[in-house]
Amino acid sequence: MKYTISIVRTKKELLELLKMVRTTWIATYTNPERNLSSSMIAAHIDQHNNDEYIKMRFKALKGKNRKNWVAKNINGRIIGWIGCEINNENIGSFGIYILPSYQGHGVGTKLLSKAIKWLGRAEKIEINVLDYNKKTIQFYKKFGLKFNGKKDDFIVGKFVGKGWSLRMELKK
């Protein structure tokens, strides 16, 4: 599978990226056993993807403590994204989403490798992952991330999944 990786630079890329993330969120977080429907996930994403949010996200692309990469297929379509940042306490974090049809083809591995290298100056790297997202938990473990015992709530609109989000970290 051929793809390219580049830094997100344009508003057009950001808009396409947000659509890709919406698709991936629906596929990743919908869980009928936990009463999370695809329409709930879609509504949550849609309420945040307003003009003000898009302007804020575009401005954030240029931040010195942030980096965003996208993977594009041979047709130039965004198939994956990783965004990372280092906060004021020198803790790195990232978010990564790959379209379901492109998962398992090395795209996420390539993107996460770039992010971990860029985050190398941080004291530690943290990420939250839903406890039922076993595939992603295993993926993060391959990079040395481990559950640190902390759990956070997963909030979608007014819905709260108490303690569903596991905090994983990579210590230096």
As an assembly, this protein is single chain
Spatial ordering of strands, largest sheet: 1-2-3-4-5-7-6
Q: Quote the distance from N terminus to C terminus.
A: 33 Å
The CATH H-level superfamily is Gcn5-related N-acetyltransferase (GNAT)
Number of strands: 7
What do we call the CATH topology? Aminopeptidase
Mean pLDDT: 94
Structural class: alpha+beta
Helix content: 25-40%
How many structural domains in the coordinates? 1
The amount of beta strand, in percent, is: 35-45%
List the helices and strands and how they pair.
Layout: E1 3-7, H1 11-29, H2 38-48, H3 51-60, E2 66-73, E3 78-86, E4 91-98, H4 107-118, E5 124-130, H5 134-142, E6 146-156, E7 159-171
Parallel strand pairs: 4-5
Antiparallel strand pairs: 1-2, 2-3, 3-4, 5-7, 6-7
What does this structure look like?
The chain is an alpha+beta fold. The protein has a single domain, classed as Gcn5-related N-acetyltransferase (GNAT) (Aminopeptidase, 3-Layer(aba) Sandwich), CATH 3.40.630.30. It has helices at residues 11-29, 38-48, 51-60, 107-118, 134-142; strands at 3-7, 66-73, 78-86, 91-98, 124-130, 146-156, 159-171. A 7-stranded mixed β-sheet has the order 1-2-3-4-5-7-6, sandwiched between helices. Strand 2 (66-73) and strand 3 (78-86) form a beta hairpin. Helix 1 (11-29) packs antiparallel against helix 2. The chain starts with a strand and ends with a strand.
